[in-house]
Design brief:
This protein has two domains: 111 residues, LON domain-like (Archaeosine Trna-guanine Transglycosylase, Chain: A, domain 4, Roll); 86 residues, no CATH class. A hairpin with a 7-residue loop joins β5 and β6. By secondary structure, the chain is of the alpha+beta class. The longest helix has 18 residues. Helix content is 32%, strand content 25%. α2 packs parallel to α6 and α4 packs parallel to α6. It contains six helices and seven strands, in the order ββαββββαααααβ.
Length: 235
């Protein structure tokens, strides 16, 4: 795998990606996802990635995927393009790896079924910050932080991680992605948040869902503490 900076795409990136579809995971930019890969088609996908640019696009399988899992079931229209950070080969041809989310990727056209794994041409969706709502953005960010603090107990390890994150003065786009990933939303909600590249709209959507979550959770019954990075996801 090339030694390109893990936060930037290769200069010769032409918009073609390897797809890693899963039914139970929505990946986000800025987030590191542990993965355990064992299916032969995805082991082949990983080997090609390791030998070239290290890029893999995580994409959610649409409902009904069970009927054609071994084939090409429908996938969500927006994926998360990531880069392999580290990799461990295991006995039996299996692999553990860490994948860092880099950018949203709208799937424009899937390639014909010429490989064991799926591939697609994508349009990258960089975070968009509308100038018209710039004045309201700091308040929106403070509101998200306040809601997150209500969901994470004071003495939990997640609160320390949140404080460390905020100490780095992260952008609103990064903050929404990390919160979207870690705070326990259903998959359809996460996918909707991933698909929204307008940061202000994404932040408002996230705020609405966080507010509902806060209303449902009583102080005596806090939500499960989020983990970051999370446990391994299996393919």
């Amino acid at each position: 795998m090339s030694s390109t900076d893990e936060t930037t795409l290769p200069r010769d990136f032409a918009g073609s990606v390897r797809l890693f579809p899963l039914p139970n995971l929505v990946h986000f930019p800025h987030v590191v996802q542990p993965l355990h890969i064992f299916e032969p088609r995805y082991c082949e996908m990983l080997e090609e990635a390791l030998a070239s640019d290290g890029l893999i696009a995580m994409v959610l399988l649409e409902p009904g995927w069970e009927r054609d899992y071994e084939g090409r079931p429908a996938i969500a229209p927006v994926a998360c393009l990531g880069r392999v950070l580290s990799h461990e080969r295991l006995p039996g041809g299996k692999h553990n790896l860490l994948l860092r989310g880099m950018c949203r990727a709208a799937i424009r056209r899937e390639h014909p079924a010429e490989r064991a794994f799926r591939q697609a041409d994508v349009d990258l969706l960089e975070d968009f910050y509308p100038a018209s709502s710039a004045a309201h953005r700091p308040g929106l960010q403070r509101g998200l932080i306040d809601l997150a603090r209500e969901l994470i107990p004071d003495k939990a390890a997640g609160r320390e991680q949140l404080d460390d994150l905020l100490a780095n003065q992260v952008s609103l786009g990064m903050l929404t992605d990390i919160f979207s990933y870690t705070l326990g939303f259903p998959l359809p909600v996460k996918q909707r948040l991933l698909a929204e590249w307008n940061v202000d709209r994404r932040a408002k959507l996230l705020s609405d869902h966080l507010s509902r979550l806060v209303q449902r959770v009583s102080p005596a019954d806090p939500p499960d503490e989020p983990t970051y990075p999370p446990r391994f996801s299996l393919n």
